Amino acid sequence: MIKELLGTISEIPTPDIVVQEIISTASNPNASAKDLEKVISMDVGLSSKILRLVNSAYYGLPRKITKLSEAIVIVGFKTVRNLALSVFTYSALHSKHTFIDHDKLWSHFMTTAIFAEHIAKNIGFMNREEVFLAGIMHDVGKIAIDLLFPTYMYELAKFSEEKQTPMFLIEYKCQVEDHMELGGELLKLWKFPDEYISVALYHEKPSLNPDLPYVEMTCIVHLANVFSNIFLPGYSLSYGPPYLDPLVFSVLGIKPSDLKIMFHELERVFEKSKDMIYGGVKDEEGVQT
Ligand SMILES: [Fe+2]
Ligand SMILES: [Fe+2]
Question: Boundaries of each HDOD domain copy (predicted)?
Answer without folding.
Answer: 12-206
